[in-house]
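Issue: ligand-bound run for MRU - logging full I/O for the record.

Environment: standard queue, default settings, no custom constraints.

Inputs:
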Amino acid sequence: MKTVYWQEGVLYLLDQTALPGTVRYQACREAEEVAQAIRDLVVRGAPLIGVTAAYGVALAAWGFDGPEPDFDRRMQEVFDLLASTRPTAVNLFWALNRMKKVYTEHRAQGREQVAVALLQEAEEMFAEDVATNQAMGDFGEKLFAPRVTLLTVCNAGSLATCGYGTALGVIRSCHREGKLAMVYACETRPVLQGARLTVWELCQDGIPVTLITDNMAGTLMQQSKVDGVVVGADRIAANGDTANKIGTYMLAVLAHYHGLPFYVAAPMSTVDFSLSSGKEIPIENRDPDEVRKVMGTPITVPDVPVFNPAFDVTPNRLISGIITEKGVALPPFDSSLAALRG
Ligand SMILES: CSC[C@@H](O)[C@@H](O)C(=O)COP(=O)(O)O
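Outputs:
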């Protein structure tokens, strides 16, 4: 099942807000609809946000029917709009930069040629992402011994990417090699990507999964029920500090205390070499109602003040390794990530 696909000038997004109860696609004909879908978590996960935004740019070029002099202005407006959707996942800006380059290179050939080249680039990004995740999964799998039980948070799987997943890609490869005993999935409040998406995705593939609420991770480790933690990333600074779904830092601290390995799995496009440390990573704050409600149902006093950062930053010293498509970076990350970048 594809998370995103293009058909005859329309972009179809697998609506992740409706999963697991309903499997449906949202059809987008305008870049504005794509931007809103990214904001609303219809599509989410750093790599998928990037590729979806790339398709959004292609959509704008394909759908443009205004006078020629307005084309450049409209395309700049769309680039800016898509860039404004979610600030933390650096793959968004990475993908838009790639699209900007293609746009600039083909602009002189006319609007139709630009539109064709932009769509081709988005399709290439989609295919590359799947291959990247498979490579990452295979590097990551080698880090674990047979009968391994792993803990993960949020959804860093097929649903967060164009297929196979990052953290769940590593888990898929462990399963394929017959090494995986169990995955524990944190439910991941406030919007339950773990309970709704990770559990659904793993069940679809027959991968053994046990759901826990986020506050059960400590006792799970204390009772020696897990051998390690694998998570995805939204942005990794040059020194390895990693922004990922809120709650990731808590797991890293717990893993450290219990002497368990803590791995981040992410493509090199998630590493932001322009930032020297995680302190510089912009963190998205989301709608307070995500915390005041569960699946739309109020659970607290209306209008209670809420703290709702979507991501936290795990300092590099709590990370055992960063699994990428080019290999596994080990501490110190400044040098190992730079070496993988080449
Ligand atoms: C392969 S996805 C990596 C991260 O983007 C993922 O772990 C995550 O935090 C997603 O957050 P979300 O808010 O659902 O977009």
